[in-house]
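Wed. Picked up where I left off yesterday with Transcriptional regulator with XRE-family HTH domain. The coffee machine is broken again, so keeping this brief.
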Amino acid sequence: MPKNLNYRFGEKIRLVRERRGMTLKEVGAEANVSESLVSQIERNKVSPSVDTLMAITDALDIDPEYLFRDYKKKRKVQITHEAQRNSLTLNNVIYYQLASILDSETGTGNCEVETMLIEIQPGGQKGDIEYGHPGNEIGIILSGKGELLYGTETHILNKGDSLSFSSDIPHILRNLGEEKLEALWIITPPRVFKD
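Structure written out below (tokens, as returned):
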């Protein structure tokens, strides 16, 4: 058996056993394993099979997750503060890049989804009525009034409305109001802010 085991939970098992006032022999009998094996597991001398480990946790009446809590992978949380957002202005539209999904190992943002806050000034529009592009889009109108021209269809959009569509059909989102149109926009694959 290896001397340096990756997962060392023997101390936790011994601590719970002692708190419950159980002997090595009692735990072994309950788990249907030898007293010697329980002792070796507690001293991190052996790595038990999953079945043995489950039997011991049952005997001690503990949740197996307790033993592995310290080994859970730590995931990164990416926070993009409002003042740190990347922005891009095209015609009368401002695109603000929101947080993107990071690779947990490298910390880079090679993701398949792009999220943006978009602001379209009165009379402004985004998109192209002549060309579509590969992918899909989802939008939520946060404020203002607009219309989506999608192929030969026209859809009026108000605050609180949400929409989704295939991007390969030519489309335009246009501000119809006298105030800016603000929307949360999700595109896959990314088009505006590419890494």
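Quick read: The domain at 82-188 is CATH 2.60.120.10 (Jelly Rolls).
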